[in-house]
Design brief:
Blueprint (H helix, E strand, L loop, with lengths): L1 H31 L6 E2 L7 E2 L13 E2 L11 E2 L2 H7 L2 E4 L1 E3 L2 E12 L4 E5 L4 E6 L7 E2 L4 E6 L1 H15 L9 H16 L4 H10 L5 E5 L4 E6 L6 E2 L4 E6 L3 E9 L11 E6 L5 E10 L8 E9 L10 E9 L4 E5 L4 E2 L4 E6 L4 E13 L3 E6 L6 E5 L1 H21 L19 H5 L1 E3 L9 E3 L12 E2 L9 E2 L8 E2 L13 E2 L1 E2 L6 E2 L2
Antiparallel strand pairs: 1-2, 1-3, 4-24, 5-26, 6-21, 7-16, 7-20, 8-15, 9-11, 9-14, 10-13, 11-12, 13-15, 16-19, 17-18, 17-20, 18-19, 21-25, 22-23, 23-24, 23-26, 24-25, 27-28, 27-29, 30-31, 30-32, 33-34
Helix pairs in contact: 3-4
């Protein structure tokens, strides 16, 4: 019996203490009060205010944030059936190498280091041409032309005189030996070959003319001399190019440049050589862009069989990676509004949050680099995100009249407009006009003064002005007294209609 009494007393004590604890918890919640309502801009969600008002960026009315006291993500909640009907699909933001295959079009060109000019270092007259047209092949040491030069004749005579005056024995003046050596070097500096100087030494006879020989093997790509020309020192006579190695020259757009660097492997396809493919390496990337926003790139190619002809059309393909691994998402997830890029992030509880991101390079597989705004592992919406965006804006539009019905004013106060059934007429359209009927064409969003008479503008709802046309995109802030298209986005304007109740203006 005593045991039963003790158990009953213990149970009563436990129930009493639990009642006190729960009552205390409720008292704390009551003391803390409800979470404070925050307001945000539908176009610029980063703008958050504790009071109602207007967005400082686009001028739109701030709307209550739907996430306060909810899921805590700044999110949009859609029931599963609607989500399925919208066809929402997601992809994970992950780090991966961002690769890209780049195709550019170009041509085969002569490699500049393989071009050699032939000129003279003494004046003279051309008496004979051995190579007389462009495109002719030349071999190193081959005669190009024969030239007569009084200075060259004098130099030969000086060389022979000094040579004869400097015997091989110890007799004779050492000064003449030095003169003989200097005369020989002079002929060498004039590009007279060693064989020609040796023949002059052995024969002892002055040659009236001298032969100018080819300094390299290649094709004559330029010729600027004819028979009988008087040539001055420095005159370029021929340009000879060795085309056993050539360039494939193309032009890449700036968005492709992060994937191109010196040393990158390239494949060059020659469509007119039965789609022949030649492998090479990028040897040059221009440090500046041309007037078309492109940078020149060059690929070194072997052309031992001379089948690659300069000016031949070529298709260049490069495959490379843009540095280290990058945080990437499918490019389909991006909603580009023109001034910013938005993605919708999906959370485990089924809610969606609009997120402003900054993107970088675009790779193959329709992947795009995310520089900021996302973290690895987050899910972004890749299909149905435009419907989510429309749903988000629709919800904001529904919330907007509710906010006005509670008497919020543009300044953030709670004043009620006079004579309009407790509604804020300025908040319904936000459009102001001049109270003078003759100045009804003066229209703008927000308060101000008439530019024609200086009177304070009043809400259009307080006047008889019926010719009011606005752009459906509120962020354009375009309003006129005629139905001209919006000068900002080009959309057709819509007329504001008055209702029969309270002289209010409804949005189309």
């Amino acid at each position: 019996m005593k045991t039963i009494v003790v158990i009953i007393i213990a149970l009563a004590a436990g129930l009493g203490s639990g009642y006190v604890l729960f009552q205390g918890h409720d008292s704390l919640e009551a003391a803390a009060g409800p979470l404070k309502q925050l307001y945000s801009c539908g176009m610029h969600p980063e703008i958050i205010s504790e009071d109602p008002g207007y967005c400082p960026i686009c001028g739109m009315k701030l709307t209550p944030r739907r996430d306060e006291g909810g899921d805590g993500h700044g999110s949009l909640v859609i029931d599963p059936s609607t989500r399925q009907n919208m066809g929402v699909r997601t992809a994970e933001a992950t780090y991966r190498p961002l690769s890209r295959r780049i195709r550019v079009f170009g041509k085969i060109d002569i490699a500049e280091p393989m071009i050699q000019s032939v000129n003279l270092k003494f004046p003279g007259w051309v008496e004979r041409l051995f190579v007389d047209h462009e495109g002719e092949e030349a071999v190193e040491g081959q005669p190009l032309l024969e030239i007569y030069s009084p200075e060259l004749v004098a130099a030969q005579k000086e060389f022979l005189v000094a040579l004869r005056s400097a015997p091989d024995s110890g007799a004779g003046d050492s000064h003449m030996a030095e003169l003989s050596e200097a005369s020989s070097h002079r002929l060498e500096n004039w590009d007279i070959s060693a064989d020609q100087i040796e023949r002059l030494r052995e024969s002892g006879e002055i040659q009236r003319t001298m032969i100018v020989q080819s300094p390299a093997t290649g094709v004559v790509v330029s010729k600027s001399v004819v028979h009988g020309d008087l040539l001055k020192p420095g005159t370029i006579l021929y340009q000879i190019a060795d085309i056993s190695r050539v360039w494939a020259v193309g032009h890449a757009y700036e968005q492709d440049l992060p994937y191109i660097s010196v040393g990158s492997r390239a494949a060059v396809v020659l469509p007119h050589l039965s789609q022949r493919q030649v492998e090479g390496f990028v040897s040059y990337v221009s440090p500046y862009l041309d007037v078309h926003g492109q940078a020149e790139i060059r690929i070194d190619l072997d052309n031992a069989d001379l089948s690659l002809k300069p000016e031949m059309y070529a298709e260049i393909t490069l495959e490379s990676e843009a540095g280290d691994k990058s945080l990437t998402i499918p490019r389909l997830a991006i909603i580009n509004s023109g001034d910013r890029e938005i993605v919708y992030v999906c959370f485990d509880d089924g809610s969606f949050e609009p997120r402003t991101v900054k993107t970088g390079a675009v790779g193959d597989g329709d992947l795009i680099e995310v520089v900021s705004g996302l973290q690895a592992g987050e899910l972004v919406v890749t299909s149905g995100q435009f419907l989510l965006d429309s749903e988000s804006r629709l919800s904001e539009a529904i919330d907007l009249p509710r906010q006005h019905d509670h008497g919020s004013s543009p300044a953030g106060g709670n004043e009620t407009s006079k004579g309009h059934s407790g509604h804020d007429p300025a908040g319904l359209s936000g459009i102001y006009t001049c109270p003078m009927p003759s100045h009804f064409d003066v229209l703008q969003y927000g308060e101000g003064d008439c530019a024609r008479c200086g009177m304070a503008l009043v809400p259009v709802e307080e006047t008889e002005n019926t010719e009011v046309y606005r752009c459906p995109m509120r962020e354009c802030a375009y309003v006129r007294s005629t139905d001209d298209p919006c000068s900002v986005c080009g959309m057709p304007t819509k007329k504001l209609d008055r209702t029969d109740t309270g002289n209010r203006v409804n949005h189309d």
